[in-house]
Amino acid sequence: MALKIPIHSISLEGTQCSPQSDNLTHAAGMITTLRIAVFLLLLTTLGFFYGITLKQNIISYMYYVSEENILNGFTSFMLSKGFGPIHDWSNKTKAFSTQASTVQEKILLTTINTPSSTLVSIDPSNPSDVLKEGDGIIFLETSNRLQLPPLVVCALESTARVYKNQPVAFFMKGLNDTNLEETVKENFPMLLPLKNIYFFPLRLEEVFADTPLFSWYMKINPREQKHWIHVSADACRLALIWKYGGIYMDTDFISIRPIPKQDFLAAEYSYYSSNGVFRFSAHHNFTQICMEDFVRRYNSRIWGHQGPHLFTRILKKFCDIPKFNGTEDIMCGNITFYNPQRFYPILYPSWKKYYQVWDKLPTFNDSYSLHLWNYMNRANVTMVPGSNTLVEHLYKVYCPSTYGAILQNVTTLQ
């Protein structure tokens, strides 16, 4: 808008102005001043409301789409609006969008309706980009199956929630570059809001490259190996942790609190180390020695020979392992040897206790993660909603999206 300001010529030669002309000149000046004042007031008002609106939207956006709220507030918000678990939201949010009455609700709906590939990290590229800081948590699936049991999904979800600022990398042998995104969206819809989970194809030749395991892998015939699924998993975890560093965890652990950032092994009981969960920095000499011993003493016919037996015999080279007393941990050189209570508070002969009703639920105050002994579960006992068992309680607290998907009978959870 252009303002036309009249210009008055004034004589500098002492010309006398009549009273009438003085009044006209004074009135014109007042009108001009008033127009300028109104214009400035209009600009100030527009700026004020624009600033307030922009600030409110930015604050609302930062608050409602922050990682903390996606992880912790996402489910409760949607359930309060009458929604089911995450997998069912995409169809319902469009109908609900017309009812969104606040800026926060509309922003959250925009986040939900965003293509899921922007919420979950589906990345077939080099995992070294994701794991370069050495603080990742690595999971493996060495079979070709793509539809996984609820316990596996719960393990991923609980870990992503506990380690919300660290990458959780899931390597799956059944994935490839062509089916990666489609498979993840189809089989893991309940995990899509967890942005720190990364899915990668598991290519054994690439995993073993530049490690002592490469020559071993190129010589053997997997079809002739007994316990190949377990043997290959034992080899992969060593190679990946040696290359990238970080935590390895089996897919039958439920994470309940963060593990301190230090190199460690976990005892199943006194004098005996598990290989189901451990942490080392990249190129640590323990994992290097384990890979060399793996190849030199390879025997696929003995279950655990390349797994917990291997870790135990190599740990004994670092120190004389004393017996645990109480709940204390042990230092073995520069390696922390965690007390069984940290990961195995319920030992394998009693694994069924997880699927039983307790008069008083255990607190697990001395534990970081809980191992549910899936290898012992030959009858495929599962968590049953409404059973009031210990495992149901764990699902509700530590993997609520997985629990919600089970309630809705998601077909991908077999």
Can you walk me through this structure?
This protein is 42% helix and 12% strand. It is α/β, with parallel strands linked by helices. The chain has 2 domains: 31-114, no CATH class; 121-407, Spore Coat Polysaccharide Biosynthesis Protein SpsA, Chain A (Alpha-Beta Complex), CATH 3.90.550. A 9-stranded mixed β-sheet has the order 1-4-3-2-5-8-7-10-9, with helices on both faces. Helix 8 (180-187) links the parallel strand 3 and strand 4. Helix 1 (19-64) packs across helix 5. The chain is globular.
Largest pleated sheet: 9 strands, mixed
Q: What ranges have pLDDT less than 50 throughout 5 or more consecutive residues?
A: 1-21, 50-119
Distance between the termini: 67 Å
Q: Based on the structure, what is the oligomeric state of the protein chains?
A: single chain
Structural classification: alpha/beta
Return the domain count.
Answer: 2
* Radius of gyration, CA atoms, in whole angstroms: 32 Å
Instruction: Please estimate the helix content.
Output: 40-55%
Mean pLDDT rating:
79
Indicate the proportion of strand residues: 5-15%
CATH architecture identity of the largest domain: Alpha-Beta Complex
Strand runs, count = 11
| CATH-derived topology of the largest domain | Spore Coat Polysaccharide Biosynthesis Protein SpsA, Chain A
Topology order in helix (H) and strand (E) letters: HHHHHEHEHEHEHHHEEEEHHEEEHH
Tell me the name of the CATH class of the largest domain.
Answer: Alpha Beta
Order of strands, widest sheet:
1-4-3-2-5-8-7-10-9
Shape: globular
How many individual helices? 15
